[in-house]
């Protein structure tokens, strides 16, 4: 069960501090903040975005994700499974292909859409062939583990979006530097982090790095699903300065 929360930096820091020795931080080569970049692909008619905006059950998301510190890159396809679960399938790709889909990549996307019954075979191949890059994201992520509760928490800071659409103005971008996305990942029951967030007055937010960024950069798109996040939290942070969390040794 995944839950996302959108918090001011100071509040996210308070939550991390309150965890104390309950949590362990993922550290790779001495680094706890790891840099990520993603490119999201959609059809010219924005089928992926509109299916999510209209809350369709059979929706999909296609992106590449690059782990900038290690140089690893993957092509990922997300679909909806039984009982609202998220099914993520991925294959490795080269960083040179992070902003485009190769023939093998398009075949992989079509196969994923067919096997999860989002589209029938002919439709899946045609859709995969039509995909183009529409938006890019970058951010830094810290991952925490709560061993006793079998729960994980990801903390994303310095989130930025850049418009990659064919009609985009050069360099058009937006940021959420004053906000932190905290995502809890639990087996079933709420984790201590969820309960701590609730006790501090925070509730899960409807936010998708892809869809929220698209709506932020393209105000003409239907965005009722993300209206609160766009009109309140993100609207208040467009002129804020970037910041990072501090973690105890």
Q: Would you give an account of this structure?
A:
With about 250 residues, this protein is an alpha+beta fold. The protein has one domain (about 1-235): mRNA Triphosphatase Cet1, Chain A (Alpha-Beta Barrel). About 25% of the residues lie in helices and about 35% in strands. Strands 1, 2, 3, 4, 5, 6, 7, 8, 9 and 10 form a ten-stranded antiparallel sheet that branches. Helix 3 (about 105-115) runs antiparallel to helix 4. The longest helix is centred in the middle third of the chain and has 13 residues, at about 105-115. The protein is globular.
In short:
By secondary structure, the protein is an alpha+beta fold.
The helix/strand order is: EHEEHEEEHHEEEEHHH
Strand content: 25-35%
Specify the overall morphology.
globular
Total discrete domains: 1
Helix content: 25-40%
Total helical segments? 7
Supply the CATH architecture: Alpha-Beta Barrel
């Amino acid at each position: 069960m995944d839950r996302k929360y959108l918090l001011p930096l100071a509040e996210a820091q308070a939550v991390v501090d309150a965890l104390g020795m309950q949590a362990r931080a993922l550290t790779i080569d001495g680094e706890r903040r790891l840099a990520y970049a993603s490119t999201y692909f959609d059809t010219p008619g924005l089928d992926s975005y509109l299916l999510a905006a209209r809350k369709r059950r059979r929706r999909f998301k296609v992106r590449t994700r690059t782990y900038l510190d290690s140089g690893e890159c993957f092509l990922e396809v997300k679909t909806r499974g039984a009982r609202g679960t998220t099914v993520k399938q991925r294959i490795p790709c080269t960083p040179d292909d992070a902003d485009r889909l190769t023939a093998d990549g398009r075949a992989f996307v079509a196969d994923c859409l067919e096997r999860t019954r989002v589209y029938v075979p002919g439709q899946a191949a045609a859709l995969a062939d039509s995909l183009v890059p529409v938006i890019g994201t970058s951010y830094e992520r810290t991952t925490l583990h709560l061993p006793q509760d079998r729960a994980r928490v990801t903390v994303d800071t310095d989130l930025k979006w850049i418009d990659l659409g064919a009609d985009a103005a050069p360099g058009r971008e937006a940021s959420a530097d004053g906000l932190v996305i905290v995502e809890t990942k639990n087996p079933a029951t709420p984790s201590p982090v969820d309960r701590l967030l609730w006790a501090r007055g925070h509730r899960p937010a409807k936010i998708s790095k892809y869809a929220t960024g698209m709506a932020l950069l393209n105000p003409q798109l239907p965005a009722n699903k993300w209206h609160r996040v766009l009109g309140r939290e993100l609207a208040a942070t467009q002129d804020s300065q970037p910041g990072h969390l501090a973690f105890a040794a």
